[in-house]
Every structure is written in structure tokens, then in C-alpha cells.
Design a protein that fits this description.
Helix content: over 70%
CATH class: Mainly Alpha
Number of helices: 5
CATH topology: Helix Hairpins
Oligomer: single chain
Distance between the termini: 26 Å
Structural class: mainly alpha
Radius of gyration: 14 Å
Shape: globular
Largest sheet: none
Number of domains: 1
Order of helices and strands: HHHHH
Bound molecules: phosphoribosyl ATP
Length: 94
């Protein structure tokens, strides 16, 4: 299992079993609009890092964006494997 699959499982577990002190549980409890806004903020931070900061900053911000995007997918009822399937379909088109 790769790190994204493991992260997905943790996010789904935090949804099913909210945990005290968990950032993911706190994020989920704030609702989809809040999570969506966080994705937007993290995307902007990725853009700023790519254009004005170094590679290390871009890696850090990209990880933040991926994490928040996965939480948004989870609270929207989308399964990670459905996103992977869409990518597989696109690969098959080329
Ligand atoms: N990958 C992540 C991850 N990436 C980023 N973050 C958190 O995302 C937040 C982003 O920082 P910001 O400054 O934007 O947000 P903030 O000011 O802390 O919080 P807000 O009030 O703005 O929401 C930080 O608090 C990070 O700790 C993450 N928190 C958790 N994970 C993964 O989720 C797992 C479970 O974590 P918990 O849910 O905390 O147990 C961890 O083991 C990690 O694998």
C-alpha cells in the first residue's frame, strides 16, 4: 500500500471515528465549505511556492494541498479509488 492509500485510510478512519487532538477530525467537523476553502488556500500556497520560493517549499506545500484535497474528497463522498480509476481511464486514452 502506498503512502496516499495509507493517508486515505487514516482520513476515512477519522471520519468514522473522530479522535481528540486530531487535525483531520477538527477539519472534518468544520464542514465541507471550510475544507473547500482550505484547499483553495493551500493551492494558492503551492502557486506562491512554485513561483517565488524554493523546491523544498514547493514539496511542503504540495503535500499540504494533497492532504487537504483528500479530506475534501472524503467529506464529499468521493472514494480515492474513484479518482485513481479516472486517472487510469485517461491513461488508457493516450
Ligand atoms: N498529512 C497530513 C497533514 N498535512 C497537513 N496537515 C495539517 O494541516 C495544517 C495546515 O496548516 P495551516 O496553517 O494551513 O492550518 P492551521 O492554522 O493549522 O489550521 P486551520 O485552523 O487554518 O485549519 C497543519 O496543522 C498541519 O499539521 C496535516 N495533518 C495531518 N496529516 C496526516 O493525517 C494523519 C492523521 O493526523 P491527525 O488527524 O492529526 O491525527 C497524520 O498522521 C498525517 O499522515
Amino acid at each position: 500500500m502506498d503512502v496516499l492509500d495509507e493517508l486515505w485510510n487514516v482520513i476515512k478512519d477519522r471520519m468514522a471515528n473522530p479522535k481528540e487532538g486530531s487535525y483531520t477530525s477538527k477539519l472534518i467537523s468544520k464542514g465541507k465549505p471550510y475544507v473547500a476553502r482550505k484547499v483553495g488556500e493551500e493551492a494558492v500556497e503551492v502557486i506562491v511556492a512554485a513561483l517565488y520560493e524554493g523546491k523544498d517549499s514547493l514539496i511542503y506545500e504540495a503535500a499540504d494541498l494533497l492532504y487537504h484535497l483528500m479530506v475534501l474528497l472524503a467529506v464529499s463522498g468521493v472514494e480515492w479509488k474513484e479518482v485513481l480509476r479516472e486517472l487510469e481511464i485517461r491513461r488508457g486514452k493516450k
